[in-house]
Amino acid sequence: MSDAVSKYLKQTPVGKRVEAASVVGDWPKLVGKEIAKVTDPLHVTRDGVLFVAVKTNSWMSELSLLEPELLKKINAKEGRAKVKKIHLRLMR
Fold first, then answer.
1. Are 89 and 54 in contact (CB under 8 A)?
2. Per-residue pLDDT, 5
3. What was the pLDDT predicted at 22?
4. What b-and-e string marks burial along 53-76, b requiring 16 or more CB atoms within 10 Å of the CB?
């Protein structure tokens, strides 16, 4: 029964938000230790934008170039709501 409930929830708006939010918890595994050290994933919006805080401007530039590759890694997990864009902002 828990399998059926799990499948149902993944199809609901709430379930999709929970799956998208799992990106935050999985961040170090998705991007690797080096990038995880200089970033902090903040949240995923309903329309699939992942907000990430970055420690330096140089890393922001590097990550903006890596965005297509990062999106592929993030969206590779079957059943996870798709992240469409990564919005980078400088950490304060």
1. yes
2. 54
3. 76
4. ebeeeebbeebeeeeeebbeebbe
